[in-house]
Design a protein that fits this description.
Elements (H helix, E strand, L loop, with lengths): L5 H5 L5 H13 L2 H8 L3 H15 L4 E4 L2 E4 L1 H25 L5 E7 L1 H18 L3 E7 L2 H9 L5 E6 L10 E10 L10 E5 L5 H13 L3 E6 L3 H9 L4 E5 L7 E3 L11 E8 L6 H13 L4
Helix pairs in contact: 2-3, 2-4, 2-5, 3-4
């Protein structure tokens, strides 16, 4: 493409509306789903992205059979766009005094809380400093029970691997975890430290070992990640957790032929009711926007 004059460059700008739509497309990697998210027709969204490509004078997307992927310039613009939108929204919340207020009762499994919540809460607080998020940590089945009892407004939950992409914000592989130097082949039966029997990690571990014909026993049980991690550190058992939640002093066991492959799980959000409060809906949208990037 021909080089642009300084005058032409100065006449262009990265419009907030274009950047906001671009970030959504980059997150969901499909124009149809992104159009629904931003409240535009697919044709209108496509025109927005064409306009943005004209402004930056670079191709931002490459179309594939499954949607779109970012080009190298697209990946670079995404970093800038997220920072610009964050500062833009923080400035509006600060100067307009229109940041939302109220309380959200939010449920989250331990493994997601430890890794994701600091980032999610920090940015949400900067935009809505008067909002209070009360966090309850528990395994997914217990969180669903609390939603059913109206004890929570919103929960981040785990879903089975076969859940359609449209219902999943992010996917995480389950992995076998042991302490440094641990050799699973030395144990027969294999001692396991697992969460509640109806959790996906517990079910996945038992089903995989049963299919492989590997003998095992539930040696320890804990509904908290801290409890499971402490048991694994003792060297007396293996655990199954999401890969993102593996502590730095523990090891993912990749190369043991006696340990079968484990599935991935999906991360999603579930509301306490069909029509959540505006504050809860805004917090949920904030999570959907940030979680794939963390």
């Amino acid at each position: 493409m021909e080089a642009r004059s300084e005058t032409n460059i100065l006449s262009l700008s990265l419009e907030i509306d274009l950047l906001r739509s671009f970030v959504v497309v980059a997150e969901v990697r499909a124009l149809s789903r992104a159009a629904s998210r931003v409240g535009r027709t697919q044709s209108a969204l496509s025109q927005q992205m064409k306009r943005l490509e004209e402004i930056v004078d670079q191709p931002l997307f490459q179309r594939t059979g499954r949607g779109v992927v970012l080009t190298n310039p697209g990946e670079r613009l995404l970093v800038h766009a997220q920072r610009i939108l964050r500062l833009h929204d923080e400035a509006l919340a600060d100067l307009s005094g229109k940041g939302l207020s109220g309380t959200i009762r939010f449920g989250c499994p331990d493994d997601y809380a430890a890794v994701f919540l600091p980032h999610l809460l920090r940015q949400f607080s900067s935009q809505h400093p008067q909002a209070l998020v009360e966090v309850v940590c528990a395994p997914t089945p217990r969180l669903i029970e609390q939603l059913d009892m109206h004890a929570l407004d919103l929960a981040m939950i785990s879903l089975p691997e076969e859940t359609p992409d449209i219902d999943v914000i992010r996917r995480e592989p389950l992995v076998w975890v042991g302490c440094a130097g641990m050799n699973a082949a030395h144990f027969d039966p294999l001692p396991l430290a697992l969460s509640d029997p109806d959790t996906l990690d517990h079910v996945a571990a038992c089903e995989a070992l049963n299919r492989a014909g590997r003998a095992y026993r539930i040696a320890y049980a804990s509904s908290s990640l801290a409890g499971l991690t402490a048991l694994v550190r003792s060297g007396q058992a293996l655990a199954v957790v999401t890969q993102t939640a593996v502590a730095s002093d523990l090891c993912v066991i990749h190369d043991d032929p006696g340990l079968p492959a484990l599935p991935s799980i999906g991360i999603s959000l579930k509301f306490e009711r069909g029509r959540p409060s505006h504050l809860t809906a805004v917090f949920a949208e904030h999570i959907r926007g940030m979680l794939p990037m963390l």
